[in-house]
């Protein structure tokens, strides 16, 4: 048999040898074994059932859901001289009848059938007249609701196979299945003790990278421009992003096309053809693009955002390098992508079980973005293929920064998680380690745990980050469900016992420390203040909160880098083209002036000069009368670090202990101690709006906040949708489009939580 298969391979396809796994699968099928084969796209899947179909007497049936792929395969087989046909909804009645007639006479070696057709009486009677030596089921993961692409029509397959008089061997093929989905496929299709093959997931010609914390626009421009002769795909999460990214590249004179569900059929077909024929070298697309596209010379695939699961990511990324040549796959990851995806799942219409599955897939994808181990190994293991060596060239394998011993920190985190007994999530564990005085913590008595406050000097975000790292490394596990909890795995025990060490890349640890500390070298502080003053004035004029112009982090970076033209300004994180065109002139003028004047750029460093209550200007004070009579009316932005401790406490409470913290952090500290916003406003002699803005600023800087206290959960989706519709530039139109009981604070909180002010640039 082996020899015949090899001869057929050579004669029909022109190859001299089988790829890994192919000949074992073919052997099994020729000897009548049921088979479950998990081979990635481009792994030579179709040869595995086409060759047995050619060698066995009768007509093999291939079940496939992809109409365009069926046609392509049948055309290709016919060109190779193999009689084959398909039955699906694209045929008119006459053509359909003709295929049925020819089939009943045994004219074909392979008949491709859409799953919906199998259940018809016509097909039942046809199959009773046929000699069927093999049934191959393509895209078999569609039968499992644990997969990422469940199709109810696949559920009829087992019934139809069961009704056949002589049941032939059944072969299920899929490009994407976790071990869990594999088991489900075998059960749902009623496979008899199948041979199982998992192979070929390691696409060694792909170089995988995860890029975090970069200016995505600049990264993409540079990447594409540095590869002027190469063809590539950029995947975006939304149509809007696809349009924007495409426009951006097109302005650089790059031959770029776009493809998404909002375009009409002609435009999509046109874009696809131009890309296929290399008239456009870059395609910017949503995940609507790619099914059934076989363009072998795609040299790179860039993901503008993290997709919702590893299956989708690897399938899309795997469209690079189908010709086996070296190719690159880059995932641009920002932590807020997780929130966006999670929000989409929460809001989706799926039933609760389905949502749970989607959430788990999302977390696995997130761990890919955060792991510090070989990326290719991570994916290959996810699909259940063991024993694949490190790739040696992904962004993690190439990270030469030293590994540092973080065993002590890991033990603190693990032991805290252990004490919470798997009943709480990562954010609660982080709060306990931080020593938070939040009400919930005190109510549960967690301040009496021995791990309480063990990592007081860390930020909550850094603690969470460490825990996500421990999840990615397999020491912690996150549960399924809407409110995922965290617990220890068996692998955590040796760490707690001190018998193994935990190592982490220095770069990861250092980067986190860097982002946590926001101190600015003294030399640039005057420029920073000048920029803040300009922002304060401009924001007041435009009646928006200052962070909607630029975040502090962006101003800090401007003060640091001192850009003197638009291009340099664009390189600053969080500043897009829209901001540059609107404010670039002003900002660059301030920087230039500063450079000329030297230290004299520190204009009016005494913030007390701003006597006007800024928040009064945007019409919001009516919602919240300042709760303290005699509130000074000073806004947060008017205070300079170091002076804020001087705010006269009206409650007589000792606030001196907060000295040294910036003003907004003082507010957060009081809030974390369980005080209400009104109490803090009164205590600090500030308006409630100012206190709210303090908290939002903390949110911008990455502090964990109880968002559901600020944003009514029942309105959250509506608020986000409304902001997406009318834009985040002005608050009033948003407020007016929402129910009465949604206040300005809820809107501003939603903008910060979902990072909507920068997303729309
Ligand atoms: Zn690697």
UniProtKB/TrEMBL annotation:
In the UniProt record, does the keyword Nucleotide-binding occur?
Answer: yes
The UniProt entry, under InterPro entries, shows: DEAD/DEAH_box_helicase_dom, DNA_helicase_ATP-dep_RecQ, DNA_helicase_ATP-dep_RecQ_bac, Helicase_ATP-bd, Helicase_C-like, Helicase_HTH, HRDC-like_sf, HRDC_dom
Tell me which residues make up the HRDC domain: 521-601
Q: Name its GO BP terms in alphabetical order.
A: DNA recombination; DNA repair; DNA replication; SOS response
Q: Where is this region: Disordered?
A: 598-657
Any one GO CC term of this protein is: cytoplasm
Transmembrane annotation, as ranges = none
SMART domains given in the database record: DEXDc, HELICc, HRDC, RQC
UniProt domain Helicase ATP-binding: residue ranges? 26-195
Q: What class of enzyme is it?
A: isomerase
Please list the reactions this protein catalyses: Couples ATP hydrolysis with the unwinding of duplex DNA by translocating in the 3'-5' direction
Read off the Pfam families from this record.
DEAD, Helicase_C, HRDC, HTH_40, RecQ_Zn_bind, RQC
Cofactor names from the entry are: Mg(2+); Zn(2+)
Top-rank taxon of the source lineage equals: Bacteria
What SUPFAM superfamilies does the entry give? Answer: HRDC-like, P-loop containing nucleoside triphosphate hydrolases, Winged helix' DNA-binding domain
UniProt keyword list = ATP-binding, DNA damage, DNA recombination, DNA repair, DNA-binding, Helicase, Hydrolase, Isomerase, Metal-binding, Nucleotide-binding, Zinc
Q: What is its EC number?
A: 5.6.2.4
- UniProt similarity note: Belongs to the helicase family. RecQ subfamily.
Name this polypeptide is given: DNA helicase RecQ
What species is this protein from?
Paenibacillus sacheonensis
The upper taxonomy is:
Bacteria, Bacillati, Bacillota, Bacilli, Bacillales
